[in-house]
Every structure is written in C-alpha cells, then in structure tokens.
Amino acid sequence: MTPQALAAYSEAAQCFPGNPGSTHRWGRSSREALDNARKCIYAALNFSDGRLLWTSGGTEANNLVLQSARSRGMRVLVARNVHPSVWYATGASPEFVGALPLDREGRIDRQYLLQQLKSAEPVLVCLSHACNETGIVQPVAELAEMCRRGGHLLHVDATQTVGHLPLDLEAIPAHFISFSAHKFGGPRGVGGLLVREAPLLEPQVFGGSQEWGLRAGTENVPGAVATAAALEAAQESLPTEVPRLRGLARGLVGQVELAVPDALVNSDPENGLPGLVSFCFPGTSGHDLVLELAGWGYAVSAGSACHAGSVFPSRAIVSMGRSEREALGALRVSLGGASTETSVANFAQKLLSILR
Ligand SMILES: Cc1ncc(COP(=O)(O)O)c(C=O)c1O
Predict the structure, then answer these.
(1) Which of 208, 248, 263, 305, CA to CA, is 20 to 30 A from 196?
(2) What is the pLDDT of residue 92?
(3) What is the pLDDT of residue 93?
(4) What is the distance in A from the centroid of ligand 1 to the CA of 29?
C-alpha cells in the first residue's frame, strides 16, 4: 500500500468501528465514510451516471457481471486476451459464449465485432481495457458506442488502467467497469464494479441487503477509504508518471531490439499501459528467464502457464498471432514508481547477458 493509503486505512479502522448497516451514530458515520469513499472514486474517474458496488477485487467484480449474464442465458462475446477472472467465468457453452479475435497489434478485430453485433438479441461484450499480459489498450470509448448503438451491453475490465492512465469515464459509456485497489497502491482484497445499468446483475453472494442487495456482507470501510486515498494519490502522479514510464519502456525496448534482432515486442510503449513491456524471445523458455532473473533480484513474469508439469503458451499472446514457440519465450516486465533509467539499464544488461 502507498503511504497515503496505509495512513487512510489505519485512521478509518480506528475512527469508524461501526457497522455501516447500523442506525446508531457509529453505524451512520461508517456509512458516511463508505459513501464519501465512493464519491472520491466518482470524482477521480469522472463517473456521474451510475454507482459503485464495492467488491473484494477485480475477480469478484468480473465474476458478478459474467455470472449474472450466464444465469440469465445472455450471449457473451469475450475478447481472447481477457484475464482468467473473465475467461473462466463465462462458462464453456458455445451456444452462449463467443471469443472475439484480435489483430496482430493485440486490438479487437472491429469488423468481426460489428458483424456479431448485428444480432437482434442483446449480447454482453467483455474486454480488458488494457491486457494484463501485453498492456495493449483497447479503444473502449469507440467500442462502447458501437455496443450501445446496437442495444448491446459492454463490460470493461479496467483493472490494469484505473490509477495507471488518466480516465474520463464520461467519455466511455460502458455499462460495467471493474477495478482492483491493489493495482494502484490500495489494499489487497478490495475493488469495485462501476455500474450504469443494474438490471442484468444478480447477486452471487447471499445474506444481507448491502450494496443494493447485490453483494451481501458487512462492508470493508477502511478498505474503501484506503482505496479512495490510493486512487487520489495515483491520479495526482499520472501527469508525470505516464510520460516517465513510457520513456523508460521505450529505452528498454530499444536496447533489447538492438541486441536481439529476433526479439518480438508484444506491447506498445507509446500508447499502451505505461511501463509494461512484453517480449517474445523465440526458442527460449520464459519460465527459465524468470528464474534466472529472480536469482539476480528481479521480479518479472512469463506469459505461459505451468499446469501439471506442462507449460502452456499464453492465450493473450497467441491471440496476437504469435506461434506457440514464440509465445513460450514470452517475458513481461513491469516498470513502476521505483524504476529509474539506471535500474532499467542494469536490468537490460542482465537480461541480455542471459540471452547471449
Ligand atoms: C486485467 C485484470 N483483471 C482482473 C484481475 C483480478 O484482480 P484481483 O486480483 O483484484 O482479483 C487482474 C489481476 O491481476 C487483472 O490484471
């Protein structure tokens, strides 16, 4: 947690001991703190025509939308590079689920989507604002307009972009937008779903009538207050952090491309998620690279997944047209507030010495 979030959490935990569902004065002040945190999130994201439902994070927010569509038998079109919390919540029935292909830049194939949206029955389109593996950002404002024009619903998983890119949700008329607090320096286990049209939603957690009857359970007041503080601090840093991280990412890509001519870059340092760089080093193992770099004190990740002793290439990277061999050599590097030109140059040197 950032210092701002930690201080807000600690203060709220001490000052608001009441259950926000109680009518006594301690309960009422907790309710007020919870609602003020909601208002801070609305202000930070310029969201004024819906409401925020607190959840335990991005996974639960995504599941709430997908499971609701599933239980109502609504057809879902899901981008091939979404996070597992969307992909595996769709259910496997081909009758109700379609996958949206991506182009070689990792963007949704608009012609294909337009064709699908000709369906008279409303569908739910689900996509990641920025892919967690490549950082490629989708033109969500335009896609939301496309969906609305045909009377369809759009769910945007903005877990990677809230707090990392300046967002004006007024310009993004999606019906559902999910986020997660730990991605921008807030507490783990807190997130939310911004909802413009609630009729689709059905509770997945039953009990009390909290969160408009859509999510039972005593609300996490300190978590919500800390999330709002973290987002405010993150937003303040964006005007300087976005160009700084993009500059560092450009430098890293430049050094790698110069030294490893067959390296493939899966991300877009200019317009993608600031600081996220994904490479494919064909013929190498991303997992081996992760282990070697960890030995030097670097925390990076491979795109592929290990399961029962086998390694599977990343769905997100294969969906951009990479071969299995290329995708197995995927490596994702996330630069952040502590990254500097020197630390990135040192990292690049180490990576290149391993690849040689
Ligand atoms: C795009 C995306 N969606 C959802 C999630 C899940 O969020 P949480 O960890 O809060 O459940 C993540 C986490 O990495 C993510 O990157």
Answers:
(1) 208
(2) 72
(3) 77
(4) 31
The CATH classification number of 3-234 equals: 3.40.640.10
pLDDT for 304 equals 59
Tens of pLDDT, residues 279-288: 999 999 999 9
Positions annotated as catalytic residues are 306
**Is residue 57 within 6 Å of ligand 1 at its C-beta?**
yes
Bridge-based pairing state of the strands 123-128 and 153-157: parallel
DSSP of 160-188: TTBTTB---GGG---SEEEEEGGGGTS-T
Q: What CATH architecture is 238-355?
A: Alpha-Beta Complex (3.90)
Q: Which atom of ligand 1 is nearest to the CA of 62?
A: 4
Q: H-type helices in 117-220, by residue range?
A: 140-149, 210-213
Tokens of 63: 């599941």
Q: Are the CB atoms for 170 and 46 separated by under 8 Å?
A: yes
Q: Does the C-beta of 4 come closer than 6 Å to ligand 1?
A: no
Q: How far is CA 157 from CA 63, 87, 259, 289, in A?
A: 11, 11, 35, 29
Spans of the chain, pLDDT less than 70:
304-310
Spatial neighbors of 97 by CB under 8 A, at least 6 apart, are 75, 76, 77, 78, 90, 91
What is the CA(59)–ligand 1 centre distance, in A? 6
Asked if the domains 3-234 and 238-355 are classified in one and the same CATH topology, the answer is no
55 CB under 6 A from ligand 1? Answer: no
Edge-to-edge, what's the strand order for the sheet holding 264-265? Answer: 264-265, 276-280, 330-334, 301-302
Spell out the domain ranges in the chain. 3-234, 238-355
Cβ of 67 less than 6 Å from ligand 1 = no
Six-digit token string for 282: 């064909």
CB atoms within 10 A of CB 23: 9
Query: pTM surpassing 0.90?
Result: yes
